[in-house]
Amino acid sequence: MGFGDLKSAAGLRVLNDFLADKSYIEGYVPSQADIAVFEAIAAPPPADLFHALRWYNHIKSYEKQKASLPGVKKALGKYGPADVEDTTGATTDSKDDDDIDLFGSDDEEESEEAKKLREERLAQYESKKSKKPAVVAKSSILLDVKPWDDETDMAKLEECVRSIQADGLVWGSSKLVPVGYGIKKLQIQCVVEDDKVGTDMLEERITAFEDYVQSMDVAAFNKI
């Protein structure tokens, strides 16, 4: 079990894949497990490792509360995928390393062998992960679309909103909600793929129907 060297690009890729379908290292709330892994990383993960970067920024927000998080901090090698070798303590006591003893060579050669074994196992792990379908991050968004006045044709306004089509965007249910003075706003649900559709794009496209739409607000935003 382990992530490998979290200061290396390979180790960060393993962490990113591990967090593709998880919010935390263990369980469903931030814990000492997250702090142990966080402290082993030298710098924020690069932007293309967005699962690891999202987790890193989230755990960083608990920096002042880390001592109060639940759980008991364990050795780094106790966390992570089961099929990746823990190499965090590989250089601390090479004489006690069973794998190295089997080679029966000097310290420098043993280190090279351990490195080669780690790289082979990481390659096997990444190959296995690449065959799995990617987890698509989605969000459910509730939008408030406000008309100019009580004379605005709300059926036409909704028709305009639903006419917006994009890869990764699915419109859902809707209703008209009174806001006062006879004016009603359109409240409409949609599901989006996070990598393809954002709220900025939705606002730009919806408010482009300026004959009907005064403004658009996000009433609720939930990860799926």
From TrEMBL:
Keyword Protein biosynthesis: yes
Composition bias, Acidic residues: 95-112
Keywords linked to the UniProt accession: Elongation factor, Protein biosynthesis
Species of provenance: Leucopsar rothschildi
Ranges where the record places region Disordered: 80-113
Family the UniProt entry places it in: Belongs to the EF-1-beta/EF-1-delta family.
Residue ranges occupied by any Translation elongation factor EF1B beta/delta subunit guanine nucleotide exchange domain in the UniProt entry: 138-224
Elongation factor 1 beta central acidic region eukaryote domain residues: 102-129
Gene Ontology CC: one annotated term: eukaryotic translation elongation factor 1 complex
Its biological purpose: Catalytic subunit of the guanine nucleotide exchange factor (GEF) (eEF1B subcomplex) of the eukaryotic elongation factor 1 complex (eEF1). Stimulates the exchange of GDP for GTP on elongation factor 1A (eEF1A), probably by displacing GDP from the nucleotide binding pocket in eEF1A.
Gene3D superfamilies: 1.20.1050.130, 3.30.70.60
PANTHER family for the chain: EF-HAND AND COILED-COIL DOMAIN-CONTAINING FAMILY MEMBER (PTHR11595), ELONGATION FACTOR 1-BETA (PTHR11595:SF21)
InterPro entries with a match to the protein in the record: eEF-1beta-like_sf, EF-1_beta_acid_region_euk, EF1B_bsu/dsu, EF1B_bsu/dsu_GNE, Glutathione-S-Trfase_C_sf, Transl_elong_EF1B/ribsomal_bS6, Transl_elong_EF1B_B/D_CS
Name of this chain's protein: Elongation factor 1-beta
GO molecular function: guanyl-nucleotide exchange factor activity; translation elongation factor activity
Subunit structure: EF-1 is composed of 4 subunits: alpha, beta (alpha subunit of the eEF1B subcomplex), delta (beta subunit of the eEF1B subcomplex), and gamma (gamma subunit of the eEF1B subcomplex). Interacts with elongation factor EEF1A1.
Highest rank taxon of the organism: Eukaryota
